[in-house]
# Entry
Amino acid sequence: MRAAERETPAIEVVGVHKSYGPVAAVRGIDLTVAQGETFGFLGPNGAGKTTTIAMLCALAVPTAGRIEIAGHDTRTAARQVRRNIGLVFQESTVDGDLTVAENLRFHADLYALPTASLPARIDAVLDLVGMVDRRDTLVRTLSGGLRRRLEVVRGLLHGPRVLFLDEPSIGLDPQTRAQMWTHLRDVREREATTVFLTTHYLEEAEQCDRIAIIDEGRVVTQGTPAELKSVLGADRVELRTGDNPAAAELLRSRFGLDPVVGKDSVCVQVEEGARLVPMLCAGLDVAVYEVTVARPSLDDVFMHHTGRGIREAPQPVGGRA
# Structure
């Protein structure tokens, strides 16, 4: 990759809005994604993720604002944008009646890839996801996880600068999802590809270098997973004791904490909860049966900024693009 390409942002979004008639699906988004970064777009269904990714891929035109992909404007240079991106849709779009290699050759024809070097390129991308031995397998006989890998490979075949993944692991079991992420990390390292994905899986967002949380068509915060969680600071320590009200009073008087007594436990918010647990147990004159320490999660971050958990999806704000 040339030095100028490394310096140009893979994605630059400035003041982007998208409306469908009177309905505002995207309400002002600003993003910059560096070349080679894995960037997550985290939000519930209906938050505007799919509409945004359609605009980034030059499949929908913004109502207002500017988008550049690898230095090309999506309005004025849509063709160059599409040459520089790969896209994996939410729904499967591979042809089940063709083999793995035939699906890839069909994609290569669409991008006018050189015929002479195509077999080697197909083997190279299949090797990235451990599917070389499936080259001549009919796609309809593949598992859901293998089909998803094939779609990732197809998106990479023409050597894009940016690979867009719209809910890439939706419908996959946790083990297959973990395997897919192993392959995506290999893709980024070996192909020097920027990965931009939309998701509502918190554990998936944790794999990203940076995350933007979108809610009701707006980016409410962005940063690394650690940065986003550091805003909340304290750990949550939950104790199940022989006398929760008495334990709460001791936590106040001896440790200066502000406990909350629940039905079966007492909880406190503290810095470095794991380090404090031995002192809490030793300093309480009641039996402690169980202690749980929980670090702030991305769901906590989402709730902090929106007032609800990410699983509590709002009503859709716009149509599917």
Remarks:
- Residues 234-295 form a domain with the Alpha-Beta Plaits fold (CATH 3.30.70.3400).
- The two ends are 32 Å apart (CA to CA).
